[in-house]
Amino acid sequence: LKVLGYFLKHLGHKRKVEIMHTHSLFTLLGERLMLHTNTVTVTTYNTLYEILTEQVCTQVVHKPHPEPDSTVKIQNPMILKVVATLLKN
Length: 89
Hints:
Largest sheet: none
GO cellular component, one term: membrane
Number of domains: 1
Shape: globular
Protein name: Neurobeachin
Oligomer: single chain
Strand content: under 5%
Helix content: 55-70%
GO biological process, one term: intracellular protein localization
Number of strands: 0
Number of helices: 5
Keywords: WD repeat
GO molecular function: protein kinase binding
C-alpha cells in the first residue's frame, strides 16, 4: 500500500486517472483487502488515509494519525470507496 501511495503521489492527475480509473484499480484494491483482512487495522487505515491525501510517510504508523488541519486536501477520492467497502464488510 505504501508503494502505491508513493506511485500515486508522483503521478500527474491525467496519468493517475488513466491508470487507476480506466482499469478500476481502486475497486480491485478494495476487493483484495477484503480477502486478506477480517478487520480494518489502524495501520491499514493510516496507509489508506495517506493515499487519500497523498501525504505518504516512510514509516509504518501503528497509532492513529493526528487530526488533519485545513491544509490537507483529498487527492484520491476513490480511496473513500475502498474504506467504505472495508468498513461495510
